[in-house]
Automatic annotation (TrEMBL):
Pfam families associated with the record: Fer4_5 (PF12801), FMN_bind (PF04205)
Record's protein name: FMN-binding
GO cellular component, one term: plasma membrane
Membrane is among the record's keywords: yes
Species annotation: Shewanella denitrificans (strain OS217 / ATCC BAA-1090 / DSM 15013)
Predominant location: membrane
Length: 716
């Protein structure tokens, strides 16, 4: 028997079957029927034939790496291969996305087709057609190209559109396609294995200064200009929905559309000539190591834009260097009102933007200023095009170190953790704070107002940061994936693909050993935190609360365990089907997709959230399969940190009455399988004005003092 109180429910087999049938019907009504079926894996050969319609023969899959060679007579048309044979990289579900990739004899991508996947975000929530559109973007690219998902294309890099809500999935797919294609191309001799070099950042020479006027600085390239005519802009939108929006007339085609001069202001010869000594010092002196200043001076089309608001981002300009695309916010912006240099033209707007050190901008390397031009095609819709101006720093202004041999390229796991490094640090700080709260709980609960405010602030951070910003909501599907991995070929790489989820599970493991599953459910679960905050708001505005009798309440606990058993049984046969049925959890709708999906999912999640206006954490208490799965491990808890007295339950029932999730039984015992570790009972435990045993003890002490006789001193 596991530790803790076991609930005995007398039900016969027919009742169990009826309950399972009811749950199945409930899920069937809540979600579209099409979402309950998984398409079988597609055979590769029909896809190869479709990609090579003129092929006369296709070889068997052979070699290392394994490939199909496609011929038209004696001529080699190209090659096809499956990513699972060459670069089998687990995606979000724990299983790889197997794709057929075809290239021609010169290494150009002819296409990529998804043969099989198990991604829950695609199976339920995002149409598969979007996944196909993502892979269609590889057609026409080359295996030599450096391809990245999302962002902006930069020198040497091609950016392809990501898939909103499935970022991890498409990142893994991109790595699998490009890695497999590179290995195939190298094995066929289509590309050579080259070792790149690393160029350390250049530094601006602070003591190099020469007096110069506007003509000198623009003539030698110290200050560059991006100049656009209206005809050039009109041509850029040709063939799009915005072709005739704001189009110039024939007589206006040669008119100026935009004129922007740009340079690095922290180069002494540039900054000290452009500005007065005081203005230049005011801007340059606060810079820390690695920071730089971009100065823009323009006429015509505004590089700041009329839609810019405080706290927002300047969405019309970006600075590109290598793989980095740098955008600017208002905190990095200063407006210039005057220039001190001789013979400078008049500018409608002048601004200075601070390039932060974390971008690792190299002032000695080439960079581009990108101007984004938008045309409105509807009340909301618009189209963008962009124009770039090149900049190459004059060697006399910078010190450029010698290049060095680079370290090996980061693995996918290393890349993901590096990109999420700030989130990882912030989450680690949150967990550290939580551990300190738990270790010093006996001290903190003696200050009720402080601990309540601290807890509510922590819950807000959990919802906003962990949930909506980082997508760090654990799911019972994670549990099934872990169990299946244990039964198969276990690999840490599978679980380290998402740093936030990995750290949260590590925190769950630690807190389960020390405090039980209650800590995650009460502090780190975003949906649980959201429910509690909604209920706190309802109590604050005095919305009447509804609580079930304890006898009914403790029987409803069993529902979440039955749901867990059903999901676990299904997962043994089909993890993909279990992932679909696990949509009884509203987590994906609420945090990953942010309610941007079909109405039944939104309705279900909204109902569960709004239910907390009258009843606290209903889903957590009665329906959550993840909470049930974590409760199974409760017997592993090493310590009992929540203090109780002999009087608790008999006769005192203060804590049991105050417990808002009814985790304290009438006999005073705290059911740690249901507790959410809110610490309210501990606040009462140490409060001598609320806890009856403490009040009784205080009364006795005061009565004793009243009857105490003072000592009488007798003079000798």
């Amino acid at each position: 028997m596991l530790g803790g109180r076991v609930l005995l429910v007398n039900v016969n087999l027919n009742n169990i079957k009826s309950l399972i049938l009811f749950l199945s019907l409930l899920l069937g009504m809540a979600f579209p029927a099409a979402a309950l079926f998984v398409s079988p894996a597609k055979p590769a050969m029909p896809e190869i034939q479709a990609l090579f319609p003129t092929a006369s023969s296709i070889s068997e899959k052979q070699g290392e790496p394994a490939i199909w060679t496609v011929h038209q007579g004696e001529e080699v048309l190209g090659y096809a291969f499956e990513t699972n044979d060459i670069a089998k990289i687990p995606a979000y579900s724990g299983e790889p996305v197997n794709m057929l990739v075809a290239i021609d004899a010169k290494g150009q991508y002819l296409g990529a087709k998804v043969l099989e996947h198990h991604e829950p975000i695609i199976l339920a929530g995002i149409p598969e057609t979007k996944l196909w559109k993502f892979t269609d973007q590889y057609q026409g690219l080359n295996v030599k190209d450096r391809i990245k998902v999302g962002g902006n294309a930069s020198q040497g890099t091609i950016a392809i559109d990501g898939l909103s809500g499935a970022t991890v999935t498409v990142m893994v797919m991109n790595v699998a396609i490009t890695k497999a294609a590179t290995k195939v191309a190298q094995s066929l001799g289509l590309i050579e294995i080259k070792k790149g070099i690393i160029q350390p950042l250049s530094t601006i020479k602070p003591d190099v200064f020469a007096k110069a006027d506007w003509q000198t600085l623009t003539g030698d390239g110290s200050i560059r200009k991006l100049y656009l005519k209206r005809a050039v802009v009109d041509d850029a939108f040709m063939g799009t929905e915005a072709e005739h929006v704001d189009e110039a007339s024939a007589s206006q085609k040669q008119d100026m559309f935009a004129e922007i001069y740009y340079a690095l202001l922290d180069v002494p010869t540039i900054g000290k000539n452009l500005l007065s000594e005081a203005d230049n010092a005011w801007l340059v002196d606060p810079l820390v190591k690695g920071e730089h200043l971009l100065v823009l001076m323009g006429n015509g089309y505004s590089f700041k834009g009329s839609g810019y608001v405080r706290g927002g981002i300047f969405d019309r300009i970006q600075l590109h260097q290598g793989d980095e695309a740098i955008s600017f916010r208002d905190l990095e912006h200063n407006r210039l009102t005057d220039l001190a240099i001789e013979a400078a033209p008049h500018f409608a707007e002048m601004s200075v933007f601070r390039i932060q050190a974390h971008y690792e901008f190299d002032p000695g390397a080439p960079w581009q200023l990108e101007l984004l031009v938008r045309r409105q095609t509807g009340p909301i819709d618009s189209l963008f095009t962009s124009f770039k101006g090149e900049y190459q720093m004059l060697p006399k202004y910078v010190d450029t170190p010698a290049a060095i041999i680079p370290e090996p390229e980061r693995s996918l796991i290393e890349q993901v953790w590096f990109e999420k490094r700030y989130e990882v640090i912030a989450l680690s700080i949150m967990i550290t704070v939580l551990l300190l709260i738990l270790f010093f709980q006996d001290v903190l609960v003696r200050h009720p107002t402080f601990i309540h405010n601290l807890r509510h602030g922590f819950l807000i951070a959990t919802v906003v940061l962990v949930g909506w910003t980082w997508g760090g909501q654990l799911s019972v599907v994670n549990v099934f994936t872990f169990l299946q991995s244990l039964m198969g070929n276990f690999s840490w790489d599978l679980f380290m693909l998402d740093p936030i989820i990995f750290i949260l599970w590590a925190a769950v493991a630690v807190t389960i050993l020390l405090w039980g599953r209650a800590v995650y459910c009460g502090w780190l679960c975003p949906f649980g935190a959201l429910q509690e905050l909604v209920n706190q708001f309802a109590r604050f505005v005095k919305i009447p609360q509804f609580e079930l009798p304890f006898a009914v309440h403790e029987r409803l606990w069993a529902i979440k365990y039955l749901i867990l058993l059903v999901l676990f049984g299904v997962s043994l046969d089909s993890l993909a089907m279990a992932e679909k049925l696990a949509e009884i959890e509203p987590f994906k709708t609420t945090f990953l997709l942010k309610f941007d999906r079909e109405w039944p999912f939104v309705l279900w999640a909204s109902f569960l959230i709004l239910l907390n206006l009258v009843n606290r954490k209903t889903f957590c208490r009665y329906l959550c399969p993840l909470g049930a799965a974590l409760s199974v491990s409760n017997s592993a808890r090493l310590f009992n940190w929540l203090k109780r007295r002999e009087e608790c339950g008999t006769p005192c029932k203060t804590c049991a009455t105050e417990c808002e999730i009814q985790a304290i039984e009438p006999n005073g015992v705290i059911n740690m399988r249901e507790c959410h570790y809110c610490l309210d009972c501990q606040i009462t435990y140490f409060n001598d004005e609320k806890c009856p045993p403490l009040k009784k003890l205080a009364y006795k002490k005061n009565k004793y003092k009243e009857h105490q006789i003072d000592a009488v001193n007798v003079a000798s």
